[in-house]
Amino acid sequence: MPMKKIKINRAPVLTLWAAVVARRLGYDAQEALTLGKVLAGLNAQSKGRRLGIFEENKEKTKPKEIDEEKASDIRPVMIMGRAIPALKTADGWRAAANGKAVDPESVQKYLEQKFGERLSDAQEALETLARSYTPKQLEAEAYSLYEKFRPKIPEGKKGWGIKGDLDLDFIRSLAR
Questions:
Q1: 33 with 108: CB under 8 angstroms?
Q2: What is the pLDDT along the chain (176 residues), one digit of tens a residue?
Q3: Please, what is the Cα angle at 82 between 152 and 143, to 5 degrees?
Q4: Alpha-carbon distance 15 to 78, whole Å?
Q5: Facing residues of 94 across strands?
Q6: How many Cβ atoms from other residues are within 10 Å of residue 122's Cβ?
Q7: 155 secondary structure, DSSP code
Q8: Beta-carbon contacts of residue 30 (< 8 Å; ≥ 6 apart)
Q9: pTM
Q10: Cα 102 to chain centroid, rounded
Q11: What is residue 144's DSSP assignment?
Q12: At residue 79, what are phi and psi to the nearest 5 degrees?
């Protein structure tokens, strides 16, 4: 019988959960992986700035000349209440980081590295939870569900990058 808990930090958990949510909302597996990775990255940047770990990039806050042609290729995709920039590529939609499409294979490798042999267990538990909601309900409640099951870590800077327990039975218990 597999262990019911996984020792892991929050970023890969949020990446996987956002990808599962995106799949439930109708995105294909490759699109979903990239959306999950960019969502987790944006959340980490926001939290890092709030905690004073990252400094605000003054260059990014200055108004810039917008390349209208490139801007028309990017559209926001709403996942878990957050707008994720996405680009149309030859392989379909991909979330974008720094104006470039994220490679879904790199996200898959990241998840395999972080979850190890427990990736399929975690994914199955998260998919069970996601399937218990209609897509509309899931989109409305996905982030609050994440806040319930995410690994518990110390508050503030002490918790940055710290691993906590992801309880797969607890995730399954949240399914309706």
A1: yes
A2: 456 899 999 999 999 999 999 999 999 999 999 999 999 999 877 665 565 665 665 444 433 343 334 445 789 999 999 999 999 999 989 999 988 999 999 999 999 999 999 999 999 999 999 999 999 999 999 999 999 999 998 777 666 678 999 999 999 999 97
A3: 35
A4: 15
A5: 87
A6: 23
A7: S
A8: 91, 92, 94, 104
A9: 0.85
A10: 13
A11: H
A12: -135, 125
What's the CA angle centered on 84, arms 82 and 85, to 5 degrees?
Answer: 150
Joined together, the tokens standing for residue 67 give 């390349």
What DSSP letter does each residue of 24-57 carry, written as one string?
HTT--HHHHHHHHHHHHHHHHHHHHHHHTSS---
Residue 94: per-residue pLDDT: 96
Q: Per-residue b/e over 25-64, b at no fewer than 16 CB within 10 Å?
A: bebeebbbbbbbbbbbbbbbeeeeeeeeeeeeeeeeeeee
